[in-house]
Protein backbone atom coordinates (compact mmCIF):
# COMPACT_ATOMS: atom_id res chain seq x y z
CA UNK A 1 0.00 0.00 0.00
CA UNK A 2 1.39 3.39 -1.03
CA UNK A 3 2.09 5.72 1.91
CA UNK A 4 0.10 8.94 1.98
CA UNK A 5 1.88 12.29 2.14
CA UNK A 6 1.42 15.07 4.69
CA UNK A 7 3.02 18.47 4.21
CA UNK A 8 3.41 20.24 7.55
CA UNK A 9 4.37 23.90 8.02
CA UNK A 10 5.85 24.73 11.40
CA UNK A 11 5.15 28.47 11.56
CA UNK A 12 7.80 30.95 12.67
CA UNK A 13 5.71 31.84 15.74
CA UNK A 14 5.61 28.14 16.69
CA UNK A 15 9.32 27.32 16.38
CA UNK A 16 10.54 30.72 17.67
CA UNK A 17 9.44 33.50 19.98
CA UNK A 18 8.50 35.66 17.01
CA UNK A 19 8.33 38.97 18.90
CA UNK A 20 11.72 38.51 20.57
CA UNK A 21 14.21 41.27 19.63
CA UNK A 22 16.90 38.57 19.35
CA UNK A 23 16.70 35.16 17.65
CA UNK A 24 15.12 32.81 20.18
CA UNK A 25 13.90 29.28 19.46
CA UNK A 26 10.98 27.58 21.26
CA UNK A 27 13.04 24.50 22.10
CA UNK A 28 10.38 22.87 24.31
CA UNK A 29 7.73 23.21 21.59
CA UNK A 30 10.10 21.90 18.91
CA UNK A 31 10.96 18.92 21.12
CA UNK A 32 7.26 18.08 21.67
CA UNK A 33 6.36 18.48 18.00
CA UNK A 34 9.27 16.23 17.04
CA UNK A 35 7.74 13.46 19.17
CA UNK A 36 4.29 14.01 17.61
CA UNK A 37 5.78 13.94 14.09
CA UNK A 38 7.55 10.67 14.94
CA UNK A 39 4.21 9.14 16.02
CA UNK A 40 2.58 10.09 12.71
CA UNK A 41 5.52 8.68 10.73
CA UNK A 42 5.29 5.40 12.67
CA UNK A 43 1.66 5.08 11.63
CA UNK A 44 2.70 4.88 7.98
CA UNK A 45 2.62 8.41 6.58
CA UNK A 46 5.32 10.23 4.62
CA UNK A 47 5.96 13.80 5.76
CA UNK A 48 7.58 16.90 4.31
CA UNK A 49 8.36 19.55 6.93
CA UNK A 50 8.75 23.26 6.23
CA UNK A 51 9.50 25.74 9.00
CA UNK A 52 9.26 29.51 9.21
CA UNK A 53 11.81 32.11 10.25
CA UNK A 54 10.16 33.99 13.12
CA UNK A 55 12.60 36.00 15.24
CA UNK A 56 15.60 34.58 13.37
CA UNK A 57 15.06 36.58 10.18
CA UNK A 58 11.92 38.71 9.72
CA UNK A 59 13.13 41.83 11.58
CA UNK A 60 16.59 41.70 9.96
CA UNK A 61 15.12 41.36 6.46
CA UNK A 62 12.68 44.21 7.08
CA UNK A 63 15.32 46.52 8.62
CA UNK A 64 17.56 46.22 5.56
CA UNK A 65 14.74 46.09 2.95
CA UNK A 66 15.92 42.73 1.62
CA UNK A 67 12.32 41.85 0.77
CA UNK A 68 12.67 44.44 -2.03
CA UNK A 69 15.92 43.02 -3.42
CA UNK A 70 19.71 43.31 -3.07
CA UNK A 71 20.93 46.64 -4.44
CA UNK A 72 23.96 47.71 -2.41
CA UNK A 73 26.99 46.21 -0.67
CA UNK A 74 25.58 46.15 2.87
CA UNK A 75 22.57 44.14 1.68
CA UNK A 76 24.89 41.47 0.27
CA UNK A 77 26.39 41.03 3.72
CA UNK A 78 22.94 40.91 5.37
CA UNK A 79 21.76 38.38 2.73
CA UNK A 80 24.45 35.96 3.92
CA UNK A 81 23.74 36.75 7.56
CA UNK A 82 20.03 35.97 7.21
CA UNK A 83 20.85 32.64 5.55
CA UNK A 84 23.25 31.80 8.39
CA UNK A 85 20.56 32.54 10.97
CA UNK A 86 18.11 30.29 9.14
CA UNK A 87 20.67 27.49 9.04
CA UNK A 88 21.13 27.92 12.81
CA UNK A 89 17.37 27.65 13.45
CA UNK A 90 17.18 24.69 11.08
CA UNK A 91 20.03 22.98 12.97
CA UNK A 92 18.09 23.35 16.26
CA UNK A 93 15.02 21.77 14.66
CA UNK A 94 17.03 19.00 13.01
CA UNK A 95 18.72 18.17 16.32
CA UNK A 96 15.37 17.63 18.07
CA UNK A 97 13.91 15.64 15.17
CA UNK A 98 16.88 13.31 15.06
CA UNK A 99 17.01 12.88 18.84
CA UNK A 100 13.41 11.67 18.63
CA UNK A 101 14.15 9.14 15.92
CA UNK A 102 12.96 11.05 12.85
CA UNK A 103 15.12 10.28 9.78
CA UNK A 104 15.15 13.93 8.77
CA UNK A 105 17.33 15.50 6.08
CA UNK A 106 17.83 19.26 5.74
CA UNK A 107 17.34 20.81 2.29
CA UNK A 108 18.28 24.53 2.48
CA UNK A 109 16.19 26.26 -0.22
CA UNK A 110 18.86 28.84 -1.15
CA UNK A 111 21.00 26.00 -2.53
CA UNK A 112 18.54 24.85 -5.19
CA UNK A 113 15.58 27.25 -5.54
CA UNK A 114 15.57 30.61 -7.34
CA UNK A 115 12.95 33.30 -7.92
CA UNK A 116 12.18 36.00 -10.45
CA UNK A 117 10.72 39.30 -9.20
CA UNK A 118 9.67 37.59 -5.96
CA UNK A 119 7.96 34.64 -7.69
CA UNK A 120 9.14 31.05 -7.92
CA UNK A 121 11.38 30.43 -10.92
CA UNK A 122 13.41 27.23 -10.58
CA UNK A 123 12.33 24.58 -8.05
CA UNK A 124 13.37 21.05 -8.97
CA UNK A 125 11.52 18.44 -6.88
CA UNK A 126 13.16 15.23 -8.16
CA UNK A 127 15.54 15.15 -5.20
CA UNK A 128 12.67 15.56 -2.72
CA UNK A 129 10.83 12.65 -4.35
CA UNK A 130 13.94 10.48 -4.01
CA UNK A 131 14.35 11.30 -0.32
CA UNK A 132 10.68 10.42 0.33
CA UNK A 133 11.06 7.17 -1.61
CA UNK A 134 13.96 6.16 0.62
CA UNK A 135 11.89 6.76 3.77
CA UNK A 136 13.52 10.06 4.72
CA UNK A 137 11.75 13.22 5.90
CA UNK A 138 12.82 16.33 3.94
CA UNK A 139 13.00 19.53 5.97
CA UNK A 140 12.90 22.90 4.16
CA UNK A 141 12.41 26.43 5.46
CA UNK A 142 11.56 30.01 4.54
CA UNK A 143 14.77 31.47 3.14
CA UNK A 144 16.53 34.19 1.16
CA UNK A 145 17.17 33.07 -2.42
CA UNK A 146 18.75 34.51 -5.55
CA UNK A 147 16.39 36.44 -7.82
CA UNK A 148 17.26 37.19 -11.46
CA UNK A 149 15.35 40.51 -11.40
CA UNK A 150 15.94 41.83 -7.89
CA UNK A 151 19.25 40.20 -6.93
CA UNK A 152 17.57 38.34 -4.08
CA UNK A 153 14.09 37.88 -2.63
CA UNK A 154 12.29 36.28 0.29
CA UNK A 155 11.06 32.74 -0.35
CA UNK A 156 8.20 32.19 2.06
CA UNK A 157 7.75 28.83 3.75
CA UNK A 158 4.08 29.06 2.76
CA UNK A 159 5.11 29.27 -0.91
CA UNK A 160 7.22 26.12 -0.52
CA UNK A 161 4.37 24.29 1.23
CA UNK A 162 1.80 25.15 -1.44
CA UNK A 163 4.14 24.30 -4.31
CA UNK A 164 5.15 20.90 -2.92
CA UNK A 165 1.65 19.95 -1.76
CA UNK A 166 0.28 20.67 -5.22
CA UNK A 167 3.08 18.98 -7.17
CA UNK A 168 3.24 15.89 -4.97
CA UNK A 169 -0.54 15.63 -4.39
CA UNK A 170 -0.41 15.66 -0.59
CA UNK A 171 -3.36 14.07 1.19
CA UNK A 172 -3.38 16.82 3.81
CA UNK A 173 -1.60 20.13 4.34
CA UNK A 174 -1.26 21.34 7.93
CA UNK A 175 -0.18 24.84 8.94
CA UNK A 176 0.84 25.17 12.58
CA UNK A 177 0.35 28.72 13.85
CA UNK A 178 0.30 30.45 17.26
CA UNK A 179 -3.48 30.95 17.09
CA UNK A 180 -6.25 28.33 17.03
CA UNK A 181 -7.08 28.93 13.36
CA UNK A 182 -8.69 31.65 11.27
CA UNK A 183 -10.87 34.15 13.15
CA UNK A 184 -13.36 36.76 11.99
CA UNK A 185 -10.98 39.40 13.48
CA UNK A 186 -7.64 39.44 15.34
CA UNK A 187 -8.09 37.25 18.49
CA UNK A 188 -5.07 38.90 20.13
CA UNK A 189 -6.77 42.30 19.98
CA UNK A 190 -10.43 41.30 20.32
CA UNK A 191 -11.40 38.73 22.99
CA UNK A 192 -14.78 38.31 21.25
CA UNK A 193 -13.16 37.11 18.02
CA UNK A 194 -14.83 33.95 16.72
CA UNK A 195 -13.02 30.97 15.29
CA UNK A 196 -14.11 30.04 11.76
CA UNK A 197 -14.21 26.21 11.68
CA UNK A 198 -14.48 25.88 7.89
CA UNK A 199 -13.55 28.04 4.91
CA UNK A 200 -14.96 27.27 1.48
CA UNK A 201 -15.19 29.05 -1.85
CA UNK A 202 -18.47 30.58 -0.62
CA UNK A 203 -17.12 32.44 2.42
CA UNK A 204 -13.43 33.02 1.61
CA UNK A 205 -13.77 36.56 0.18
CA UNK A 206 -15.76 37.73 3.18
CA UNK A 207 -13.13 36.27 5.54
CA UNK A 208 -10.23 37.91 3.68
CA UNK A 209 -11.91 41.31 4.14
CA UNK A 210 -11.94 40.80 7.91
CA UNK A 211 -8.23 40.05 8.20
CA UNK A 212 -5.96 42.97 9.08
CA UNK A 213 -2.17 43.15 9.59
CA UNK A 214 -0.98 42.48 13.15
CA UNK A 215 1.90 44.95 13.02
CA UNK A 216 4.52 42.26 13.52
CA UNK A 217 7.81 42.28 11.61
CA UNK A 218 6.49 39.78 9.07
CA UNK A 219 7.68 40.03 5.46
CA UNK A 220 5.65 37.14 4.05
CA UNK A 221 2.05 38.38 4.21
CA UNK A 222 0.87 36.99 7.57
CA UNK A 223 -2.47 35.09 7.69
CA UNK A 224 -4.04 36.83 4.68
CA UNK A 225 -0.99 35.93 2.60
CA UNK A 226 -1.30 32.33 3.74
CA UNK A 227 -4.97 32.11 2.74
CA UNK A 228 -4.30 33.70 -0.67
CA UNK A 229 -1.52 31.16 -1.32
CA UNK A 230 -3.92 28.35 -0.41
CA UNK A 231 -6.68 29.81 -2.60
CA UNK A 232 -4.31 30.10 -5.57
CA UNK A 233 -2.45 26.80 -5.29
CA UNK A 234 -4.37 24.29 -3.18
CA UNK A 235 -7.85 24.06 -4.65
CA UNK A 236 -9.48 20.66 -4.09
CA UNK A 237 -6.92 19.82 -1.38
CA UNK A 238 -7.65 19.54 2.35
CA UNK A 239 -5.82 22.19 4.39
CA UNK A 240 -5.82 22.78 8.15
CA UNK A 241 -4.64 25.79 10.15
CA UNK A 242 -4.21 24.88 13.82
CA UNK A 243 -2.45 26.04 16.97
CA UNK A 244 0.94 24.33 17.14
CA UNK A 245 1.56 25.61 20.67
CA UNK A 246 -1.21 23.36 22.01
CA UNK A 247 -0.02 19.81 22.78
CA UNK A 248 -1.51 17.03 20.63
CA UNK A 249 -3.28 19.33 18.14
CA UNK A 250 -1.19 17.82 15.36
CA UNK A 251 -2.20 14.32 16.47
CA UNK A 252 -5.86 15.37 16.67
CA UNK A 253 -5.79 16.32 12.99
CA UNK A 254 -4.15 13.00 12.20
CA UNK A 255 -6.96 11.23 14.11
CA UNK A 256 -9.53 13.39 12.25
CA UNK A 257 -10.74 15.20 15.38
CA UNK A 258 -12.21 18.67 14.69
CA UNK A 259 -9.61 21.29 15.58
CA UNK A 260 -8.62 24.67 14.14
CA UNK A 261 -9.85 25.84 10.73
CA UNK A 262 -10.35 23.50 7.80
CA UNK A 263 -10.04 24.94 4.27
CA UNK A 264 -11.46 23.08 1.30
CA UNK A 265 -11.70 25.30 -1.78
CA UNK A 266 -12.98 24.33 -5.21
What characteristics describe this protein?
266 residues; alpha/beta; Carbamate kinase; two-stranded antiparallel ribbon; 9 helices; 21% strand
How would you describe what is shown here?
This protein is α/β, with parallel strands linked by helices and 266 residues long. It has one domain (5-263): Acetylglutamate kinase-like (Carbamate kinase, 3-Layer(aba) Sandwich). The chain has nine helices and twelve strands. Helix 2 (27-42) packs across helix 4 (73-99) and helix 6 runs parallel beside helix 8. Mean pLDDT is 91; it is low at 217-221.
Total discrete domains: 1
Q: What's the level 1 CATH class?
A: Alpha Beta
The CATH topology is given as Carbamate kinase
For the largest sheet, list the strands in their spatial order: 3-6-2-1-9-11-12-10
CATH architectural type: 3-Layer(aba) Sandwich
- Total helices: the number is 9
User: How does the major sheet shape up?
Assistant: 8 strands, mixed
What string gives the helices and strands in order? EHHEHHEEEHEEEHEEHHEHE
| Count of DSSP strands | 12
Give the end-to-end Cα distance, rounded to a whole number of Å. 28 Å
Question: Strand-residue fraction?
Answer: 15-25%
- By helix and strand content, what is the structural category? alpha/beta
CATH superfamily: Acetylglutamate kinase-like
Radius of gyration: 17 Å
What's the average pLDDT?
Answer: 91
Helix content: 25-40%
Overall 3D form:
globular
- Low-confidence runs of at least 5 consecutive residues: 217-221
Amino acid sequence: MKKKLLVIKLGGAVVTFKDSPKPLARSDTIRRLSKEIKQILKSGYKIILVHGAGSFAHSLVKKHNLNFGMKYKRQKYIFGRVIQRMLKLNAILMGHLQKNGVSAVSLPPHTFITQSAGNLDQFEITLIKQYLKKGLTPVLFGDMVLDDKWGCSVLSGDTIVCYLAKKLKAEKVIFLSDVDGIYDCDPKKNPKAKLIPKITSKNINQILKGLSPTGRDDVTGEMAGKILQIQKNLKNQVVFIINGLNPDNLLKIYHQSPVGTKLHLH
